[in-house]
Amino acid sequence: MDIELEDQPFDLDFHPAAPIVAVALITGRLQLFRYVDISSEPERLWTVTAHTESCRAARFINAGSSVLTASPDCSILATNVETGQPVARLDNAHGSAINRLINLTETTIASGDEDGTIKVWDTRQNSCCNKFKAHEDYISDMEFVPDTMQLLGTSGDGTLSVCNLRKSKVHARSEFSEDELLSVALMKNGKKVVCGSQEGVLLLYSWGYFKDCSDRFVGHPHSVDALLKLDEDTVLTGSSDGIIRVVSILPNKMIGVIGEHSSYPIERLAFSHDRNVLGSASHDQILKLWDIHYLHEDDEPETNKQEAVNDEKVDMDLDVDTEKRPRGSKRKKRAEKGQTSSQKQASDFFADI
């Protein structure tokens, strides 16, 4: 299913319990769609202007009753899903442009900005409960590790960070990888961290040994901007060549292709609440929904999985080290800087949600 959007999307997120998907646009607008199945026409529920600048991130919160968005205008907005009306807005959530939002627990989210700062927001206590100066360049992606209450972060400075939420400190940071790190996924039952890079190489880090990657998988011809874990051994990749691939991790090999957005770069990948639909957002101004139920068959041999994909045709001791800041091409796409954040506004943001 192809859903035509008003403009280029930056992010998408699926409702946690309903067939609803939210899309954040470069114009600062937020669109909400309902789909019955991928063979029928989607219904546009509403479109709102969420921010004065581009809308770079979107995440459902509070069991899907609200959707959060973030922007280079340094604000975070909560919008009611049923009405499309704003619930609360924090105008100075960060001191610079906000790039990413991710869900942590039922009552916490994390946001990452252009200057390498990560903040954790507690919706129960109505406050910013943690702040990490994790990187020297923009936060490109984050991944939450619930078992150890740690947060993985990747950055344009070419490093991977591990933030300890219990101890409120950056617990580990990798050495400079000589390339921008754009995406991250935790694999192999928490034993491996996979990072996508600007040059198209997948870097594999062993948990607890983050100074340097333990393996490199060369296979993507262009940057890997999005990673989405299918299972502990398989990850979906979205690349700037517009192709969505199924990739095996250890052994490292390409399994197949789910689909493509012509030659337009893929910004984000996400699963629906039942994981039977994959959403992909690209620069072609189209949100594509793919039927991937065949990838979830129980105990499916890898050979069968490859045939199915091709038929579609489409707490450990951690080491800490210093980071270096490279000059990356992705950085050139990130512009607008914000004002100094207001601590009082940050403390009161979630009070009305």
Radius of gyration: 19 Å
What portion of residues belong to β-strands? Answer: over 45%
Low-confidence stretches: 311-328, 331-347
Task: Give a count of the beta strands, DSSP E runs of length 2 or more.
Answer: 28
Number of helices: 2
Strand order, main sheet: write it out.
1-28-27-26
Q: What would you call the structural class?
A: mainly beta
Q: In this structure, how is the largest beta sheet organized?
A: 4 strands, antiparallel
Ends apart, CA distance between termini:
33 Å
Along the chain, the helix and strand elements come as: EEEEEEEEEEEEEEEEEEEEEEEEEEEEHH
Helix fraction by DSSP (H/I, runs of at least 4): under 10%
Shape: globular
Mean pLDDT score: 86
Quick structural summary:
The protein is mostly beta strands and 353 residues long.
Write up what this structure looks like.
- The chain is mainly β.
- It is 5% helix and 47% strand.
- It contains 2 helices and 28 strands.
- The protein has helices at 302-312, 343-348; strands spanning 2-4, 9-14, 20-25, 29-34, 43-49, 57-61, 66-70, 76-80, 86-90, 98-103, 108-113, 117-122, 127-133, 139-145, 150-155, 160-164, 169-173, 181-187, 192-197, 201-206, 215-218, 224-231, 234-239, 243-248, 253-260, 266-271, 277-282, 286-291.
- The strands form 7 sheets. The protein has a 4-stranded antiparallel sheet with strand order 1-28-27-26, with no helix packed on it. Strands 2-3-4-5 form a 4-stranded antiparallel sheet, with no helix packed on it.
